[in-house]
Structures are given as C-alpha cells and as structure tokens.
C-alpha cells in the first residue's frame, strides 16, 4: 500500500493511515503537538492511527499528527453548529413534547 500521496485539493503531501475502525485517514506528514491523531507503524510497515484518550494515552512509539482535512486550504470552511438554545425563526423545539422513558411500542 502506498502511504504518502498528494492531496487532490491543495497539492500538499499527505500520509495515509488506517484507523482502528479500518478506515483510511489522511494526516499531515510532519508531527504536530497540536494534533489529535496518534500515528505509528505496525510490524508490516503500515501506518496506523488512533485517537488518544485518558484510558489509552499517547505511547512512546506514537507521534501526534493533525488530520489533513483540518489543515487543507482546499477544503470549504465548516459552518459553526447552532447553539442548543437558539433555533432559527419558524422552527419549534419538540423535545418538550416527546415522551421520555417509554419504548417505541
């Protein structure tokens, strides 16, 4: 498997990893302390990535990288999520009317 390639949007080099869920994740090839993906190479030379947590902190053989989607200038900016208490005009919050603690039956 080819690990390093070029981003189709910004033409920067990216490093392809396999996540714990078996999906592919492009990360910036240079380690960054502000990243949230722990990257390491397994015994077959495949780059693996995972999200460090309190239960499984960063190990000595892993390096933090930023996912490329977070730094790619070719990606459109993400819209900020709405705050829970603010709804657009004409939208009604139905959570008060929903039954709680009952099954669907």
Ordered list of secondary-structure elements with their pairings:
Elements (H helix, E strand, L loop, with lengths): L3 E3 L6 E6 L5 E4 L9 E5 L5 E4 L12 E3 L2 H4 L34
Antiparallel strand pairs: 1-2, 2-3, 4-5, 4-6
Q: How many strands in all?
A: 6
Radius of gyration computed on alpha carbons: 20 Å
Percent range for β-strand residues: 15-25%
The largest sheet, given as strand count, sense and whether it forms a barrel, is: 3 strands, antiparallel
Strand order of the largest sheet: 1-2-3
CA(first)-CA(last) distance: 49 Å
The residue-averaged pLDDT reads: 85
- Estimated structural class: mainly beta
Q: Provide the succession of SSEs.
A: EEEEEEH
Q: Per the principal axes of the C-alpha atoms, what is the gross shape?
A: extended
What's the tally of helices?
A: 1
What is the helical fraction, as a range of percent? Answer: under 10%
Uncertain segments of ≥5 residues (pLDDT<50)? none
Explain what the structure shows.
- The protein is mostly beta strands.
- It has a domain at 4-71.
- 4% of the residues lie in helices and 24% in strands.
- The chain contains 1 helix and 6 strands, in the order ββββββα.
- It has one helix at 68-71; strands at residues 4-6, 13-18, 24-27, 37-41, 47-50, 63-65.
- The strands form 2 sheets. It has a 3-stranded antiparallel sheet, with no helix packed on it.
- β2 and β3 (24-27) form a beta hairpin.
- It is extended and about 55 Å long.
- The mean pLDDT is 85.
């Amino acid at each position: 498997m080819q690990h390093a390639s070029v981003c189709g949007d910004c033409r920067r080099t990216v490093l392809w990893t396999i996540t714990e869920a078996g999906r592919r994740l492009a990360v910036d090839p240079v380690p960054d302390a502000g990243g949230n993906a722990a990257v390491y190479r397994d015994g077959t030379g495949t780059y693996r990535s995972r999200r460090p947590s309190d239960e499984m902190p960063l190990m000595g053989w892993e390096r933090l990288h930023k996912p490329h989607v977070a730094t790619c200038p070719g990606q459109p900016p993400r819209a900020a999520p709405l705050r829970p208490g603010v709804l657009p005009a004409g939208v009604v919050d139905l959570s008060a009317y929903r039954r709680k603690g009952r099954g669907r039956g």
